Amino acid sequence: MDFERLQKLSNRSTDIARSCKDIRDIYGEKEDGLYYLTTAYGTKYQTFCDMTTAGGGWTLVASVHENSLPGRCTVGDRWSSQQGSNPDLPDGDGNWSNRNTFGTAEGATSDDFKNPGYYDILAEDMSVWHVPNNFPIEHWNLGAILRYHTNNRFLRLYGGNLFYLFMRYPVRYNTGSCADRGPAVPIVYDHGDKELTNNLYGPNSRLEFDPGYITFRAINNERAAMAICSGVKTKGCNTEYYCIGGGGHFPEHSKQCGDFTAFDWDRNGGNPVWSASKEISESAVLLFYR
Amino acid sequence: MDFERLQKLSNRSTDIARSCKDIRDIYGEKEDGLYYLTTAYGTKYQTFCDMTTAGGGWTLVASVHENSLPGRCTVGDRWSSQQGSNPDLPDGDGNWSNRNTFGTAEGATSDDFKNPGYYDILAEDMSVWHVPNNFPIEHWNLGAILRYHTNNRFLRLYGGNLFYLFMRYPVRYNTGSCADRGPAVPIVYDHGDKELTNNLYGPNSRLEFDPGYITFRAINNERAAMAICSGVKTKGCNTEYYCIGGGGHFPEHSKQCGDFTAFDWDRNGGNPVWSASKEISESAVLLFYR
Amino acid sequence: MDFERLQKLSNRSTDIARSCKDIRDIYGEKEDGLYYLTTAYGTKYQTFCDMTTAGGGWTLVASVHENSLPGRCTVGDRWSSQQGSNPDLPDGDGNWSNRNTFGTAEGATSDDFKNPGYYDILAEDMSVWHVPNNFPIEHWNLGAILRYHTNNRFLRLYGGNLFYLFMRYPVRYNTGSCADRGPAVPIVYDHGDKELTNNLYGPNSRLEFDPGYITFRAINNERAAMAICSGVKTKGCNTEYYCIGGGGHFPEHSKQCGDFTAFDWDRNGGNPVWSASKEISESAVLLFYR
User: Fold this and answer.
1) Which residues of B fall within a CB distance of 8 Å from C13?
2) Band of pLDDT at residue C1, cut at 50, 70 and 90
3) What is the full per-residue pLDDT of chain A (290 aa) written as tens digits?
4) Which chains touch C (3+ CB pairs under 8 A)?
5) How many Å apart are CA A99 and CA B105, to the nearest integer?
6) What is the dihedral sign for C-alpha C194, C197, C202, C207?
7) Residues of chain B numbered 193-222 and touching chain C (CB < 8 Å)
8) Which residue of A22, A26, A38, A75 to mutate against B (max B Cβ within 10 Å)?
9) Would you call C89 and A104 a contact, using CB atoms and an 8 Å cutoff?
10) Phi, psi of C288 (to 5 degrees)
């Protein structure tokens, strides 16, 4: 056992901070890893800090992990609904805009993760990592197939985090039409580029979006709501093929309901035109604030 | 960041106590908020202490949150059954009388919550708060639609907590008839009164109970068991309209199975006579010991 | 409140160790109970250490608890699948070989449990306790119906823990035939013996195994995979009657799918020949490393 290493990690529990940005600014920590944070109300939790990307100070607050693409809003679909596609439950599980938490940082590529930072931290920008399922935490950075961040401080306009952003733009079935999508924010690539983004989604999907953005609260033709379109700005309305998370009802087909929506729509058809790539479908989406 | 405030909250982790009553008595703490507790066996956890109501010292040990009234003993119905209404599973998930725990204090109005205090703390009285779903913890007290507590030390007769009380009065299908209900204990109102209690339930239900009590382990006409009838003493046997939690089988109709049983029974019928109010149906039930 | 006792338990949180073996070796602790451990990456967690059996130093890393034998890969079947028996999900929930964690040590006989030690600790041997459901932690040792351990350091050949062992021998439907089972390791009994092991399973099952071993990754006639055959070395191929955990598909019958597979196969038939005993079916399987 590397005793000194463990002792150093353990001593981090005495740091008092509300975000990884605080940890960087107040304690001068520059090493990626797990740190303890405390919410404004006093809840203490451990999460991963990215201390290197674009100056560091990024707090991991959530991961969206698809545990079963064949599932249709079944157990494990915490970012859409675990109750089946049902118009009587327009918000689904509602985790995009409540204070429920689940999972652990070390397990964030093996299952859904949401910590108190999701609703507690007041931030300006977001960073997103797509990391292959079950990848170990010490290799997330190198293993990610796509990494990017925003740098225009857009969260200041929407309450400071996703909890408040999605209060304003509810991830709810039948809350509006395709034209009512939320903000589309330009991104800076840390790993990957626009061409790679294009190739992560199906050929027909590429005709419906512009790469180089992150879009929040998309709505499709049938008025189903989705939470995040990672890497793209939506132009079309078949958003279930390139956006993730969602409300509780997908009218076109229950197969579209789930954390990764219809990413596997026509993959078994021999020549898929809508399905997303296997790479992005089998990667967890890690969400950071700064 | 309010650094001194966070530091103060963090320092609470050095307190050693088994209940909020201990925190009050030993450390003289008088502020509502999160504190660390330790079970007799050594499990450490954080929960909310109400340090003001009737002298304070109340420990939040659980919340019953209905995530989906249309659900029928589906995912999230931890206080009844997540396996469907099934006579072969008379105890359902069994959480009223086991040591399983779930959720967090800050998330207690967003999802079910149960901490080790539920089975570990030896108490005399209970307090109950009905707080609208997703209400933030700092405003629970003011936001509650109903708050009350017992003051006759009834828990001393039943083992000191709900874990032991429900060992004696199992929340189990077919364990007895409507006449075999558990104790009905008089309450003192901290917010609300008997009239308000009446109005929280349907007009027909009001003919079946007396307000001003809390009843444990009710049994309905079809021998389905429920855990808590909040604010009332049962006289009738259609307890599925005003009692919550339950065993694993509701013979009359699977729609009655769930954490909030049949609170939505005839709400869609235009002129509901049994359904509970929208207010109580969309509030989490927070359970405290002292 | 026994204040000194609580204080002593609480002080254990300053120990820095990666396993109960470390706690014993570095800090000289000899008392069974809860201790804090830290993973190589810094995640801190509390678990139970058995400090007495065969020299002590055993870390509880998981428990397999059957919440509903009638369930068929439904909610709570985390060690097989919560998605129903489905050939499109050959790995089921995949928890035998990922970093997802759930449950608590004190609740380990009331629900499934898996902590970071499962994938983090590098060990040589395993110990297994079968403890009746809902038994309190302070009496697990005396209450167990079967306890045994290995002593040939077999884990050194398979990566040091179950996480790596099951990487090599995936708990996956259709990954091989009955002949492709993983290692069968001889055991030393701490409570019980070969005769008792025999009697825990059905009469027909006894013709298919030798007691006195623990077998990993068994495969049945229909190519369904199971994780652990506790107490026995498989000779036959109807392993669903005496092995637990599993992948996501059981072709013979969906009733075989679940954490405790087909332990209740013909119990309702009057004269069961395959069903396991009520005793083992209603006990959680606690897994330790050293």
Assistant:
1) 44
2) low
3) 578 898 888 888 888 999 999 999 999 999 999 999 999 999 999 999 999 999 999 999 999 999 988 889 999 999 999 999 999 999 999 999 999 999 999 999 999 999 999 999 999 999 999 999 999 999 999 999 999 999 999 999 999 999 999 999 999 999 999 999 999 999 999 999 999 999 999 999 999 999 999 999 999 999 999 999 999 999 999 999 999 999 999 999 999 999 999 999 998 877 899 999 999 999 999 999 99
4) A, B
5) 10
6) negative
7) none
8) A38
9) no
10) -120, 150
pLDDT digits (tens, 9 = 90+) for C28-79: 999 999 999 999 999 999 999 999 999 999 999 999 999 988 889 999 999 9
Mark yes or no for CB contact B107/A101 under 8 Å: yes
Tokens matching residue A290: 């700064």
Q: Where are the beta strands (DSSP E) in chain C?
A: 33-38, 44-50, 58-64, 113-114, 126-132, 146-149, 184-186, 188-191, 209-211, 213-219, 225-229, 232-234, 283-289
> How far apart are alpha carbons A8 and B113 in whole angstroms?
33
Which tokens is B217 given?
A: 């382990």
The phi and psi torsions of C63 (rounded to 5 degrees) equal -140, 145
What is the domain range of residue A259? 3-289
Q: What is the DSSP letter of B51?
A: -
Helix (H) or strand (E) holding C11: helix C3-11
The answer to whether C286 touches C128, Cβ cutoff 8 Å, is yes
Tokens of B25: 């008595």
User: Residues in chain B, how many?
Assistant: 290
B134 shares contact with chain A (CB less than 8 Å): yes
User: What torsion do the CA atoms of A203, A204, A209, A214 make, to the nearest 10 degrees?
Assistant: -60
On whether the CB atoms of residues C217 and C184 are closer than 8 A, the answer is no
Q: What b/e readout covers C1-13, taking b as 16+ CB neighbours within 10 angstroms?
A: beeeebeebbebb
Q: A104–C42: do the CB atoms touch at under 8 Å? A: no
With an 8 Å Cβ cutoff, are A17 and B7 in contact? no
- How confident is residue B269, by pLDDT bands cut at 50, 70 and 90? confident
What's the total number of domains in chain A? Answer: 1
Chains with 3+ CB–CB pairs under 8 A to A are B, C
